[in-house]
Write a structure and sequence with these properties.
The protein has one domain: Orthogonal Bundle (ABC transporter involved in vitamin B12 uptake, BtuC). The protein contains 14 helices and 4 strands. A two-stranded antiparallel sheet has the order 1-4. A two-stranded antiparallel ribbon has the order 2-3. The radius of gyration is 21 Å and the shape is globular.
Length: 339
């Protein structure tokens, strides 16, 4: 008779049940506002995964929203100005963002550390200014008006993204699932272990023959590709993109979502952090108090850093809940006898 470890099986079963609820969520509500919040949270979760991947190599990107803007403007220009269908422009947005990340990363990642953070911050501001001033192409502060993704025809079935938010919801689920699978595989592979080694002790890693630049550029490029895809879809889901949509505060939001969700997880942490904080931000923005969103976001980060162990976040509370509350396990320290 096979022994079942209920302390592992039960949390996994509950987790699978929650995932199933997420998949069938539109069966409970088709409210546009509710679905829009969840869809946007998923899109931001992809950008947060990219930021967390870069952080795994010990680098701190302060301009991650710039790659969302780059992907958004690429597909918007291709569809609005050149008349290209959405799906090819969506893929090209990821390719363009990845190429730009590769080119920039090959140069700026040589400096690393604080200088890398400053350069990525400057990159975001440069891109915002270009989008603001390049009126003939980007329409400046007025932005570009995009359209929803083109319908998908599967035989007699047509998936019309303009008809309701439900197709957007399921495409977001698919996009998050693909991104999460890629990042999860990277995290558990030899490449992911190399990322951790580069971040933990770069000097030792270099002495062991590891090429620091190679691993840093790989993480920055992969993050750029998926963040660009997220930005492209975001622009077409909102049907608009302006220079003010994806600036410095949005890059800071991505950083906060990663920390609050938990940087120990490449997939679960970013998803939890984005869902909680984006939803919180939407409701806070309705309050008639100037700066309340930034204030409370900062307070959340402080609380996480104070009351949770270093490198952990909301995702890590799942295991602690089952261990401390459900199973009521206690941690004991035993003194080892002197030999």
């Amino acid at each position: 008779m096979r022994y079942i470890d209920y302390k592992k099986a039960v949390p996994k079963s509950v987790g699978a049940f929650l995932v199933a609820l997420i998949v069938i969520f539109p069966l409970f509500t088709t409210n546009l506002a509710t679905l829009s919040i969840v869809i946007s949270s998923g899109i931001w979760a992809i950008a947060v995964m990219g930021f967390t991947l870069i952080l795994r190599t010990g680098q701190f990107s302060m301009g991650q929203a710039a790659f969302m803007a780059l992907g958004g403007y690429t597909s918007a220009i291709l569809t609005v100005k050149l008349g290209m269908p959405f799906w090819p422009s969506f893929l090209l947005a990821g390719v363009v963002s990845g190429i730009i990340a590769l080119l920039i990363g090959s140069v700026v990642l040589r400096v690393g550390g604080t200088y890398f953070s400053i350069i990525t911050l400057a990159l975001g501001e440069i891109l915002r200014i270009v989008a603001q001033e390049w009126e003939p192409v980007t329409r400046g502060s007025r932005g570009l008006i995009t359209s929803p993704p083109d319908p998908i025809r599967l035989g007699p079935l047509e998936i019309n993204f303009a008809a309701s938010a439900v197709p957007h919801y399921y495409f977001m689920i698919l996009l998050v699932a693909i991104t999460g699978l890629v990042f999860w595989q990277m995290g558990r592979s030899r490449l992911g272990r190399s990322f951790a080694g580069v971040a933990l002790n770069p000097v030792l890693a270099e002495h062991q023959g590891m090429h620091l630049m190679k691993y840093r550029v790989i993480s920055f490029t992969v993050a750029g590709v998926f963040t660009g895809l997220a930005g492209s879809y975001y622009a077409h889901f909102l049907t608009t993109i302006t220079p003010l949509m994806l600036g410095l505060w949005e890059s800071i939001q991505i950083m906060i979502m990663s920390i609050v969700g938990g940087i120990s997880s490449l997939v679960g942490g970013p998803i939890i952090g984005a869902l909680v904080l984006y939803t919180l931000g939407i409701y806070l923005s309705r309050l008639p108090v100037f700066g309340i969103q930034q204030l409370l976001f900062g307070a959340v980060v402080v609380l996480v850093l104070l009351f949770l162990p270093k490198g952990t976040g909301l995702i890590d509370l799942w295991g602690k809940f089952w261990q401390k509350v459900v199973w009521r396990e206690e941690e004991y320290e035993f003194d080892t006898p002197d030999e």
